[in-house]
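Researcher: Let's continue the batch. This sequence belongs to Tyrosinase co-factor protein, and it's 151 residues. Same format as the previous ones, please.
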Amino acid sequence: MRTPTPQVGRPAGKARAAPTRRAVVRAVFGGAVVAGTAGTLAPILTKKASAGPAGAAAPPAERLTEIYRGRHIDCLTPGAAALWQHGAGWTPGGPEVLIDGRPLHVMRCANGGYMSVVNHYESFPTLLAAARAAVDGLGPARLSRTSAHAT
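Model: Same format as before. Here are the structure tokens for Tyrosinase co-factor protein:
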């Protein structure tokens, strides 16, 4: 006859104890984390690829050109940037600014404005305002021929 082997960590002949409060809280918290993550990611994962919000048309292409303090400023709004090619290659839809034919790296701010590498800690309401401030900040200096992100 075989003798039963005792389980490790439990005395022989004892029944399984009820789960501790720590185990119950851990299981409930784990379930809540999984449910919350699934609820948050479900709309993102099930959304069909689209160009923008449902029913929204792409912004119109707009190109602004002016001479400011003897410098030629050429701005392309985000709606038309994908259609414009400069020396570094195609742009994936972001704003573009050229000063005397040289690219000025501009970024969109959380407040809806723009900032440039010349005025990195100041936000401007429009691309043209950011370009003018960059011209003021540059003075007689010129921008580099290549973009900082060119490969």
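Researcher: Any comment?
Model: The domain at 63-138 is CATH 3.30.1880.10 (protein ne1242 fold).
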